[in-house]
Structures are given as structure tokens and as C-alpha cells.
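Quick illustration, no need to memorize.
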Amino acid sequence: MKEGGHLSLYIADFRSLVSIIGDWGERALIHHFRKGLPSRILDQLASHPSIIDSLQDLMDITLELDTRYHERQNEKSNHQEKKPEVSKSNSSHPKRSSSSSQKKKMNFQKRDKPHSSLLNKYFKLMNSEKERRIKEGLCTYCGGKHSLESFFKRPQNKLTQPSGNFPSQGKAGVKIMLCSMVFTVFHPEQNCAF
């Protein structure tokens, strides 16, 4: 069971497994039930005053402890949301919000509004904006006005540049050029005629 999950789901799953596997004995079932409990429940069980002899008693007590835990978590979250932030003008430390949901809301509100109108829900450029940029000759990535050819040109490798003696089409020209270079290195007195 997950640490923050509800124990009622775990109890229901455990009962269905017990009905499938049959009778293992009360002590074995208690052992395996305790093994799957989250540490927050096990900690509270350790300080529980009564001795638990049956699986049903253990399930009832743990369910009660889990219910209290989740009620307390709800109280905490409601208290934090309703608590007004007091700003002190003298303080050099700004008050931080402890709620992660409030932080997410603040981050979402900080987004640039002009850019959000250009993007779809997947944060990709809308087709209409993309077409407008192409039509006006703007960069489809940043929207700037600069030469698009400069992005697609790669500097040519000097080894693969065709010269007048070699074929200039594809990989064959490169292979022939490399072969002639090797031939020239090993036989400098002879000229390679490909």
C-alpha cells in the first residue's frame, strides 16, 4: 500500500485475496496484513494500548487510525488555504507559501500572455501562426526576421569536396577520392588515373 493511500482499498483487496487463498490461519493473515501497512499506521499501532488477537480487530483499528489521519490532512490543507498571508513591510524575508498547489497557480499566472495566444494546449505553435510566419518569411522557431538559409547550410568537409578529377556524385566520389589519396601516399611516383 502507498504511504498516502486510503486503507479501505487495501482492506478490500486483502479480503478478496484471503477469499481466494483460503484459510492460512489467523496469525499468518495478521502477519501479512501488517506487512502491507504504511509506516504511519504501523507507528500508531505500536503505541496502541490494546492487544490485537484477530484479523478483524486489526482491520477495524487500522481503518480508524487511517480515517483520523486523512481527516487531519484535510484539516491541515483547509487551514492553510484559509489562512491569510500577513505581509510585513519591515521584514526583509518575503513570506513563502507552503502549499504546492498555490505555487503551481502562481507559476501558471506568471506565464507570458502574448506567447500563450500563439501556442496550442500542447505548447506547440498554432497552424495559423506557423503559416503566417512562413508567408512573411519569418523564422518558424523564434519569429525573427533573419535568413533561413543560414540555418540549413553546413560547412563542407574539405575531404569530401569534389575536385575536377573525381566524380562528384554521392559516396562513390568520396570512396574514389580516398582511394586515390591512399594510392598517392603509398606510390607517390605514380599518378592514379580513375
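Residues 83 and 159 are 71 Å apart (CA to CA).
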